Structures are given as structure tokens and as C-alpha cells.
Amino acid sequence: MILILRRLIKKNETAEALLLGLYLLNPYTIANTTLPDIDSTVLPVVILLFIYFSLRYLLQKKDMSNKVGLILGSLFGLALWSKLTTPLIIPPFLACLAFITSKDYKKSIVFTLKVTLVGFFGFIITYFVYCKLLNLSTTYTYHFLLDSFSKGTSSDSLLVSVLNNLEYARNFVYWPTLPVVGLFGVSFIGVMLDKDKSEKTKIKKLLVLMSLLVAIFYIALIAPFGGFFKYPFPVFGILILTIALFYDRYIRDTKINLLYAFIATAIGFVVEKIFWGDSMFLNRKPFGHLAFLILIVVVSYVLLKINTRRVAASMFVLYIFFCIGFQLSISRIQATAPYPTKYEYGQAGLDQTTAYLRSNTDPNETIWSMKDVGYYVNNKYYESYGYYFDQSLENDLINMLKSSKVRYYVVTTGIGQDNIDAHPNIKQILDTNAVREKEFGNFVIYKSKE
Question: Whose CA is closest to 165, among 235, 239, 217?
């Protein structure tokens, strides 16, 4: 992110420090280090690498050679391996960037097509080989994506699902991200309304527009099972880059007393700790209406444009420190939490469950569980998530139980996306073909009948 920033602005150590503070102390960053996931680790890195190399070759060197096309195409293919949906925003971004830097419409289109085809066919070939080597169905990903787009609204058409998701988007902007979303909103408006006509300014606008488009893409298509701002991994780095670009353009000369910065950070930490803690169920209480957030964003931007600019700029910077403290408090809680922080919050008994399974399984033994439990138990598991939303997998679960292919099956009660109280079919299958061996808090461990 810093290397991308340095391609677009003069070196600004304060902007870089604020960027790192917002990124490294964010609870999602902490969650990703405690429970790695391909969405949260590989995809953001690949997208940022694509942006960096695009700027390096197209902006700095004006190079659209076959070598550059192969490099960017390989990164696009790797991004498709990480997630088939999100990287679809890359070709339009590249086409616009190529046109801005070359002023040649035809050359830009040809170069973008070349990169897209290299990435697409590279993914197809390697995916086919991967499926053959592991004896996997080559249509699995297609059916998974089709189900994902309509999850929770499977009886509706894709268009209806998208419209429903946009209508209920406010439910998917999770409150821990609201302070940063506010910063992003002000920054987005500021960067997009910059009247400078230089090449770099156009690229800045393209970059922040890309972050907004990915956000809308996620809310519209993926909202039925999480939403963008609950799991904002793919675009989170670009979102914070937008804040850094705004800071550099409008308020880089603002001087903040270190004491005031420390106080703002401490206030953010204390406010989060006292009033919110780590409850994921307060979303609609303090932040039920996105219109209110949008109003705050617009008013904040107006204040930066009128005579109060100096005061407003200082308040904006102090608010960044407030956000850092706010995030740090959440991160501190989640890093030491005795319950999962990945899918659902509040399930008691995670440590006891994983400890029991580690002591009763062989190092190479596979269990059936959600990703969080499976990761901490030898990191060998069949992820159970899909079984709760795809009835066609129920026979597979029954066969798994009857063949004793897997001995241990982990579910939750009361809370959790694997809550068997909400999925009676799964509960009946497990009760019929396995025995309840242990219960720790909300977690239930089933063992197959040997």
C-alpha cells in the first residue's frame, strides 16, 4: 500500500503512518492473522500487487509490452484463484488506467484483452489440472458460485436477489467499520471533486472509484451471507489508501500536537470498550440508518471547503486517531477472545472444544466442522458450512457418517451459522448416525457410530 501511495504522491511519512495505523490495528487484520483465509490473505495482496505493477509499468514506464501483459495476466489469474467474483473489477480498472496513461483507446483495449485472456486461460488450465489431480468435479466452482449469488433468496431470480441485497445493505455495514466508513466517505468525495486535471489525479480518482465499485459489488451480490463491510478484505487496503490520498491532497500541512493525538486515540479506545465491547448484535441500535451516516459525511466535507477548513482539518486528523483507538480496543478483545470471531460471535466453549479434539485425534485425522474449529484442530477438516445451505450435500454427510470416514463432527447450538437448532435436517442426520460425545458451551461434538 505504501509503495502504491508513493507512486501517486510525494513521500508523506505522516500519511503513511496513519495508513498503517488504520490498517494494522483494524480488527479484521487481527482476525486474519489469528485465522488465515484465502479471501482475507491472498486476494487483497494480489489485488494490491496488480495495482502496484500496473502503476509501475503503465504510469512510470509507459510500457504495455507482452512481458508486462504476461506479468499482469498472471496476477489476474492468481486473483481468480483467490476469488472468482471480486477480480472481475480488474479488467475495467486496467482499461481505464491504460487509456489515461497512453491516450490511445485502441491500444488500451487490446492490452486489456491480452491481460484478461492470459489470466482467464491460465486459471482455466491450472484449475482443470488441479481438479484432475485431486479427483474433484470441474463443475463444483460453477455450482458453488451460482448458489452463492442467490443464497438466502434462492427462490428469486438473480436480479431480484441483487435488488433485495441493495435494499437491505444497511444491515451489512457492521458497526466496527462505521468510523472508517465515515472517513472513507469524506475522502472519496474530496478526491473525486478535485479539480486538478493532471494524469496522477485522474489515476487517484480511478483508484478510489474502484474501491467504491468493489464495495457495491460485494453488497449487491454477496450480502446474503456476510456482506462487504462485515468481511471487507478484498478492498480494505484500497479504502484506506483513499483516506491517505485525501489527507495528502487537502490537509497534509495540518499540525497536530502529539498530546492531542494521544488523547483522541485513548478516547476512541475507552469509548469502544465502555459502550460497545465486542457485541456484534448492536448494529441496528447505534447505526440503523445509513442516511444519517451519509449526512455526516457530506457535512464533514463541506466544513473542509469553507472558512472553517483549518479547524475541520484538525478535527479530521484527530478523528483518524480516534478510529485507530476504537479499532485497537476491538482488536485487543478479539485477539484474546475465548470465542470465535470469524463467522459468528459469542459461542462459548471454543478453547475446550479444540483442546478436547486435539487430544482425541491423530495429527493427520480429519474432522467435520466450521473453518475456525477445523483450523485449530490439526488444520485438517471438511468445512461444514456448505452442508447447512445445500440439501444436495445431505446424502454426502450420511455416507460420511456410515462409512466412518470421519469420526468427529462439530456443531453449535443456540448461536452460530452451524447452529443445528436452526437446521433440523442436519440435527436429525447427526442424531441418527452419531452420538453426542461432548458439549462445551455452545459447541457439541458428535462421534460416528463405529
Answer: 217
Same domain, yes or no, for 181 and 108? no
**Dist. CA 400–CA 407, nearest whole Å:** 9
What is the percentage of the chain residues whose pLDDT exceeds 70?
A: 71
CA neighbor of 49 nearest in space, from 71, 30, 64: 71
User: CA 43 to CA 78: how far, in whole Å?
Assistant: 8
Determine the pLDDT at residue 411. Answer: 93
Q: Both 355 and 289 in a single domain?
A: no
State the cell numbers at 247.
489527507
- What does the pLDDT read at residue 162? 58
Looking at the domain assignment, is residue 343 inside a domain? no
Q: Residues 201, 326: one domain? A: yes
Residue 271's domain comprises 10-35+154-337
* DSSP-derived secondary structure letter, 285: T
Q: 173 and 303 share a domain?
A: yes
Say whether both 131 and 159 belong to one domain: no
Q: What is the DSSP string of 382-433?
A: EE-GGGGT-GGGHHHHHHHHHTTS--EEEEESSSSTTBGGG-HHHHHHHHHH
Buried b (16+ CB within 10 A) or exposed e, 184-215: bbbbbbbbeebeeeeeebbbbbebbbbbbebb
Whole-angstrom Cα distance, residue 90 to residue 107?
Answer: 17
Q: 3-state DSSP helix/strand/coil percent for the chain, to nearest 5?
A: 70, 5, 25
Q: pTM for this one? A: 0.74
